[in-house]
From TrEMBL:
It comes from Periconia digitata. One of its GO terms (biological process) is protein sumoylation. It comes from the Eukaryota. GO terms for molecular function: SUMO activating enzyme activity. Pathway: Protein modification; protein sumoylation. Keywords: Nucleus, Ubl conjugation pathway. This is Ubiquitin-like 1-activating enzyme E1A. It is found in: Nucleus. Pfam families: ThiF (PF00899). InterPro entries: ThiF/MoeB/HesA, ThiF_NAD_FAD-bd, Ubiquitin-activating_enz, UBQ/SUMO-activ_enz_E1-like.
Length: 404
């Protein structure tokens, strides 16, 4: 979303046939969104409706680790008109940050990354309150800290830091996103706890019933209505259940996929490599493997184990792909960060607006192939598809919010 007044239609959703009339009515009826805001966000209100825009304008977002990926997320959410964004980063701007980031420049080297980015973020949309945290929030355990935000997003952190933030978000019953990019590769992970969303669809001759659609998704409500052109449609409310990152890292692929050799052959090897990287970090081997023979051998051994754990054909994990993944680790490529940042921000907007099915639950991106497969990873057991998980957050920290 490059401009707050010029959003693009996504996921095939187009403005309602009588969007102009609805907009005029909304101006007279709205007690929350002002007329000048309706004018400013005119096209996106036409796209996803006034009710969704009102939820967006009241949203407070926490964004942790302000690198290139986070730059793209912040840009899209601020232009969409959220209430506030809190940038959290305890590290300083380095010369490496100047390659793919656009909120910092040479004069910011040595400054705190969040403080350096905040003034530029604020310029995008003065209506959005931009706050800064300059301490490490990954060890924050206060429930009230997480409850202050509507959605928590973390980017380019190690597995244990992601898991710690996910645990805090779960305790506070807040949606959580994690994502990272490594050169031409990247991923988005979503743990929304329990999330309800609405879809509109043509009324079918087959009756809609309140029942499970999959191990994680159920229809919980539906109502019939007539569209402006006289067609019968229905508004369906669905509920998705999510799994925390700690369990996703060891969860199997969908049982239906496991029974189909053709589908298993199509599973992208990036899934194995991402889970291998998470294990490498979780086991205390470092943030990224070095290019020493010992680290390369360890990563290769772990990758073969993870590939086998997923019951994938050995031939689909090639030495060439492993070499490419390892060579890309730790680098930032602007087109990749832009694409994934836009995808994550759009998913956040959909979640806030309670519209369209969100990512469930791991999206990968291979920039070499321009492919973005999504895999649902859950610890599925009989009669208890998504088991409840009691998570204990790590030791507390002294995170402080600083308003610039």
């Amino acid at each position: 979303m490059a401009d707050a007044t010029q959003p693009e239609a996504t996921n095939g959703v187009l403005p309602a046939p009588d969007a102009a009339g609805d907009l005029v009515a909304a101006i007279t009826q709205s007690e929350t969104v002002s007329a000048d805001e309706i004018a400013l966000y005119d096209r996106q209100i036409r796209l996803w409706g006034l009710e969704a825009q009102n939820r967006i304008r009241n949203a407070n977002i926490l964004l942790v680790s302000i690198k290139a990926f986070a730059n793209e997320i912040a840009k899209n959410l601020v232009l969409a008109g959220i209430a506030s964004i809190t940038l959290a980063d305890h590290e300083s701007v380095t010369e490496d940050d100047l390659g793919a980031q656009f909120f910092v420049n040479e004069t910011d080297v040595g400054k705190n990354r969040a403080e350096a980015a905040a003034p530029e973020v604020r310029k995008l949309n003065p209506r959005v309150d931009v706050k800064v945290i300059t301490t490490n929030v990954t060890s924050e355990q206060s429930e009230s800290f997480y409850k202050a935000f509507d959605i928590i997003i973390a980017t380019d952190l190690d597995f244990l830091s992601f898991a710690a933030l996910d645990a805090g978000a779960r305790i506070a019953n807040r949606p959580f996103y994690a994502g990272a990019t490594h050169g031409m590769y990247g991923y988005i992970f979503a743990d929304l706890g329990t999330h309800d969303f609405n879809i509109e669809r043509a009324k079918s001759n087959r009756p809609t019933v309140k029942a499970p659609e999959s191990a994680t998704r159920s229809i919980v409500d539906f109502t019939d209505k007539i569209s402006s052109d006289g067609k019968k449609i229905e508004l369906v409310t669905k509920r998705e259940l999510y799994t925390p990152l700690l369990l996703v890292n060891t969860s199997p692929l969908d049982p239906v996929m496991q029974k189909d050799p053709r589908k298993l052959k199509k599973v992208h090897p990036l899934l194995t490599c991402v889970r291998t990287l998470w294990d490498f970090q979780r086991n205390g081997n470092g943030i990224l493997p070095t290019h020493t023979p010992a680290d390369l051998q360890l990563f290769t051994t772990l990758a073969m184990q993870k590939h086998k754990e997923l019951k994938l054909p050995p031939a689909t994990l090639t030495g060439d792909f492993l070499k490419s993944f390892l060579a890309n680790l730790g680098s930032e490529v602007s087109p990749v960060t832009a694409y994934l940042g836009g995808q994550l921000a759009q998913d956040v907007i959909n979640v806030l607006g309670k519209r369209e099915q969100p990512i469930q639950n791991l999206m990968l991106f291979d920039g070499e192939e321009c492919s973005g497969p999504v895999y649902a990873l859950h610890p599925i057991f009989p009669d208890n598809p998504i088991p409840a998980m009691a998570v204990v957050p790590p030791p507390p920290s002294d995170a402080q919010v600083v308003v610039l």
